TrEMBL record:
The gene is LOC100827415. Belongs to the cytochrome P450 family. The lineage of its organism: Eukaryota, Viridiplantae, Streptophyta, Embryophyta, Tracheophyta. Pfam families: p450. One of its GO terms (molecular function) is oxidoreductase activity, acting on paired donors, with incorporation or reduction of molecular oxygen, reduced iron-sulfur protein as one donor, and incorporation of one atom of oxygen. SUPFAM superfamilies: Cytochrome P450. This is Cytochrome P450.
Length: 557
């Protein structure tokens, strides 16, 4: 038993234990706070959102994820170059054409797609042209460039694009008769999917049939596209992939459906080619992209007969090649068509000027060819007029040859102005191979990412003047009335430099074919209260579609 003196001596020791513990926590707090303050001080001159230790700017980016493109506009209009730190890397966003030219052309080899981008997109794009670097990319680029310059492919594409534009017109004509509300984005997605599968695979998948059937390939492709985009800001996606849960589980299922369709088409096409050769009917081998790449893979040489193309020699290589063209030719085109229609609806003088260009083109071409135009009445839905209307649309479509479409300058300007404000690919990241300094003095570190931002670039007054945010197709018309191009490092909708889009002419061909028919013969009115905003994915699609009422346009001539 302790004496009173001992008890008195023990009390302060016990009392000081909590205080000692408190000192420990205070010390930890001071150290952490000092670390944060030093980190913030080191980034005092950084242009962009606030960055914190470990998490970087993740919180602000997540908070603005569903408006990320406009979030970047706010920063880039002020700074031109913005750095956004993330847990495992950093993104440098650029909107100044001088910096863009440096990345896409001048120091091209230092800015590949990179391993980070490849890891995100590999499950969908594989070793295809949009996900490849180095020699693998160069071989595909060289071969694809040769194929896209082919007159056979161009003529085949023109026929296919006209065919499906007329199918879409037929659906809209029926909607006029019944007063049914239609989702133009869905219809454009169906039209471009059918078209690109015909041009790319040589198959008819029929999503634009009058009853608009569901298509598992299209649904799976859309789901996969959305999920791989989410990977760019989801630090847990690798864990979810490992555990096969959440979005990564859905991605796995979606890719399985996409692959089942693609591989079945490849096997069938190979069998058709073998059969055509065996029967001595070589001329029956189709002109689609898949058939051409199968033949190139079998030949084992490139278009200069200088080296093997092992990529095209197996089904996996063909799968990657064709899926890359599908995503390029389907989603991007449908998205631009949707935004074009929205811009035309919200800018009636533009739509009217376009309609008059199309009517004048039709009249001039008919006179040149000695054709009598079939009369129709815009406000009549009787059986006789229905028939004459369909015949008149088909008559007009026949005038829309490759060369004929090239004469529609205002239409071309309207499409280009749409792409300036609503580029199909709103931002495009590149890896950084070695440390570099951009022309404006911004330092970028190896292993990071540099992203040029077409969506922001089209809205920058320092690129386009005080009316940068306005939809004004006339900015693309020269004093002589011809189309006036802009630097591809300022108008970046089709990228620039060595990776400039090979399908640019094909995309314009399909878009102008469809839009010439639709805006010559139809008017569109957006459904009251329908929200129009973009959805965050690699392509700038509309989050809620584009629901409209359709009516016939005045005959004019």
């Amino acid at each position: 038993m302790n004496s009173p003196m001992e008890e008195s001596h023990d009390m302060p020791v016990t009392a000081f234990f909590p205080l000692a513990g408190l000192h420990k926590y205070v010390a930890i707090f001071v150290i952490v706070l000092s670390w944060i303050l030093v980190h913030r001080w080191s980034l005092r001159n950084q242009k962009g959102p606030k960055s914190w230790p470990v998490i970087g700017a993740t919180l602000e980016q997540l908070r603005n994820y569903y408006r990320m493109h406009d979030w970047l506009v706010e920063y880039l209009s002020k700074y031109r170059t913005v750095t956004v730190d993330m847990p495992f890397t950093s993104y440098t966003y650029i909107a100044d054409p001088v910096n863009v030219e440096h990345v896409l052309k001048t120091n091209f080899n230092n800015y590949p797609k990179g391993e980070v981008y490849r890891s995100y997109m590999d499950v969908l794009l594989g070793d295809g042209i949009f996900n490849a670097d180095g020699e693998l990319w160069r071989k595909q680029r060289k071969t694809a460039s040769f194929e896209f310059a082919s007159k056979n492919l161009r003529d085949f594409s023109t026929i296919v694009f006209r065919e499906y534009s007329l199918k879409l017109s037929s659906i809209l004509s029926q909607a006029c008769k019944t007063g049914k509300v239609v989702d133009m984005q869905e219809l454009f997605m169906r039209m471009t999917l059918d078209s690109i599968c015909k041009v790319g695979f040589g198959v008819e998948i029929g999503t634009l049939s009058p009853d608009l059937p569901e298509n598992s390939f299209a649904q799976a492709f859309d789901a996969a596209n959305i999920i791989v985009t989410l990977r760019f800001i989801d630090p847990l996606w690798r864990l979810k992939k490992l555990l096969r849960v959440g979005s990564e589980a859905l991605l796995e299922q979606s890719i399985k459906l996409v692959d089942e369709f693609t591989y079945s088409v490849i096997r069938r096409r190979k069998a058709e080619i073998v059969q055509a050769r065996a029967s001595g009917k070589q001329e029956k081998i189709k002109h689609d992209i898949l058939s051409r790449f199968i033949e190139l893979g079998e030949a084992g040489v490139d278009n200069d007969n200088g080296g093997g193309i092992s990529l095209f020699g197996d089904d996996k290589g063909l799968r990657d090649v064709v899926l890359n063209f599908v995503i390029a030719g389907r989603d991007t085109t449908a998205t631009t068509l949707s935004w074009f229609t929205y811009m035309a609806m919200t800018h009636p003088p533009v739509a009217e000027k376009l309609r008059r260009e199309l009517a004048a083109f039709e009249s001039d071409r008919a006179r040149e060819e000695g054709i009598s135009l079939i009369p129709f009445f815009s406000d009549s839905d009787g059986p006789e007029n229905q028939s004459s209307f369909a015949a008149r649309v088909a008559q007009f479509a026949a005038l829309l040859t490759y060369d004929g479409l090239g004469k529609l300058t205002y239409l071309h300007a309207c499409v280009t102005e749409t792409l300036r404000l609503y580029p199909a690919v709103p931002q495009d990241p590149k890896g950084v191979a070695e440390d570099d300094v951009l022309p404006d003095g911004t330092k970028v570190k190896a292993g990071g990412m540099v992203t040029y931002v077409p969506y922001s670039m089209g809205r920058m007054e320092y690129n386009w003047g005080p009316d940068a945010g306005c939809f004004r197709p006339e900015r693309w018309i020269g004093e002589d009335g011809g189309f006036r191009n802009a630097s591809p490092f300022k108008f970046t909708a089709f990228q620039a430099g060595p990776r400039i889009c090979l399908g640019k002419d094909s995309a314009y061909l399909q878009m102008k074919m469809a839009l010439a028919i639709l805006f010559r013969f139809y008017r569109f009115e957006i459904l009251e209260g329908h929200p129009v905003k973009y959805r965050m994915m690699t392509i700038l699609s509309m989050a809620h579609g584009l629901k409209v009422r359709v009516s016939r346009a005045p005959a004019l001539v």
